Amino acid sequence: MSEAPSRSRLSTTTLLIAAGAVLGIAALVFGTAVVIGLTVPGVRAHFDSLIVAVLLVQSAGTLWALTFILRHRGHRLSDIGFARPSLRLFHLLWQIPTAVIVVILTQALVFAITGSDPVSESSTDSLAGNAGAAGAIVMFAAVAVITPSWEELFFRGLIFGYVRGRLGTTCAVVISAVIFALCHGVPILLPYMLALGLCLALLRVFHGNLWGSLGLHITINSTASLVLLQAVFA
């Protein structure tokens, strides 16, 4: 599927401003949470609620900031990749299961080679159990919906679009996937995140917009985050 060219090519300044906003908001929100946790009496007793609030503010704030920056810099969201979806999205019925199998097999291979074991009980399990029903729902929305939205806008929209405009589609797929994996930072999960990043970027190319990659990203995050609701409502 051919993609209509953007009204204006993404500039280095736009990319740097967006990256600065992503890093700045994360540092500000999480830094503020640490200060509050260390200085405000009684906050430690409600640490789980604080973490939920931090995740929501960080994800929603980043999505808003990226949208504002793009519009202020003269770009429509449709220019970046949120163009009108088409019936081609029905291909996600086989693409999403295929991608899920690929990323799971990739991580399983890493575990087999390194001898590592998957973590059976993560910190999110206890966090969900302690946050209560409302907190678990808010956290699920932040992790499963809002975070994939801003990450697709940034990684498959801005970074992918910037690199493709200068080095071509193949480099855009690889570079955006590598940056995506590195930004998620857990060494043992780097192969998983790299495989996921490649799948997301390939969907970006196949569909000619961000809806395909967003669909896969929401599916992955939702599946991983269902434990948050299960821990509360089971």
From TrEMBL:
GO terms for molecular function: endopeptidase activity. Coiled coil: none annotated. InterPro entries: CAAX_protease, Rce1/LyrA-like_dom. Residues 135-222 form the CAAX prenyl protease 2/Lysostaphin resistance protein A-like domain. GO terms for biological process: CAAX-box protein maturation. PANTHER family: CAAX AMINO TERMINAL PROTEASE FAMILY PROTEIN (PTHR36435:SF1), SLR1288 PROTEIN (PTHR36435). This is CAAX prenyl protease 2/Lysostaphin resistance protein A-like domain-containing protein. The lineage of its organism: Bacteria, Bacillati, Actinomycetota, Actinomycetes, Micrococcales.
